[in-house]
Amino acid sequence: xxxxxxxxxxxxxxxxxxxxxxxxxxxxxxxxxxxxxxxxxxxxxxxxxxxxxxxxxxxxxxxxxxxxxxxxxxxxxxxxxxxxxxxxxxxxxxxxxxxxxxxxxxxxxxxxxxxxxxxxxxxxxxxxxxxxxxxxxxxxxxxxxxxxxxxxxxxxxxxxxxxxxxxxxxxxxxxxxxxxxxxxxxxxxxxxxxxxxxxxxxxxxxxxxxxxxxxxxxxxxxxxxxxxxxxxxxxxxxxxxxxxxxxxxxxxxxxxxxxxxxxxxxxxxxxxxxxxxxxxxxxxxxxxxxxxxxxxxxxxxxxxxxxxxxxxxxxxxxxxxxxxxxxxxxxxxxxxxxxxxxxxxxxxxxxxxxxxxxxxxxxx
Length: 364
Known about the structure:
Thioredoxin_ResA/DsbE_sf; Immunoglobulin-like; cytochrome c-type biogenesis; alpha+beta; Thioredoxin-like_sf; single chain; AhpC/TSA; Glutaredoxin; 364 residues; disulfide bond
């Protein structure tokens, strides 16, 4: 009889150990491995990988070695994740420019070649198709990029990759919660309520956070624009006050800033339509002069381009705390409007002014 309690205790210990093992295995099995392989020429021999899991907010950072211009990386995921891959050299660009950025999924393999060249599961084939659309003339030549996105989503409402198209566009260009939800609602119920939902919720939260910060961000609308002198790309001195009598649009940007680079095409289209009717000045901030010059040349930027050195206070004078930031100045030198994203709204506002019409609104 004296041995019964000991046997019971031993049995209970084994039972608890078994239950713990089952629970542990269940938690592990919930995570699925995503394997990413890539062919990346001229990226050096070491890459930095940053992964953010949308469902949990879990962040992972790692280093991978390149071999014969290729790398392979495995990561365990419970939900869609955003993967950024960069080289150590690009960290000099203040950590805000990523060599490549894409969405990955639990249990699915991706072979990455370029922005619109992907191989793997059905999702990644859809993903590549959506990215090819962004590079196509149907999108690039469209005056209303958002409408083009909506048309694509309507035609492919059962494609999970449309969620990446919607979130990439809204978070890169307009940061508009209403537009994000409107485009998402066009998708089929299966996609809206499926495994891509955590990605949408994650991006929706980012947009809401950005908008709430923007509401409290101070601006100088209505006040005189502070004059400045900066050196342009040809080595000549450029002074803001020399353009008095014209509408002036200041574009605070940097070669390290991916949203800035993505927004250049829209600004170029607007500039070409209104060449000679207004002045555009691109102000490169927190940049390396050599990289700035290369970015201006590679992107064929036709407007005035100036470089703000480290000791320059032009960003402080204009309360710039995000990039890109657009600042519109009136012919009499007053600040009319701010925009933190190069969306079509500010261009429509300026177009009304240039055409002699009264804009619907004059506040940021």
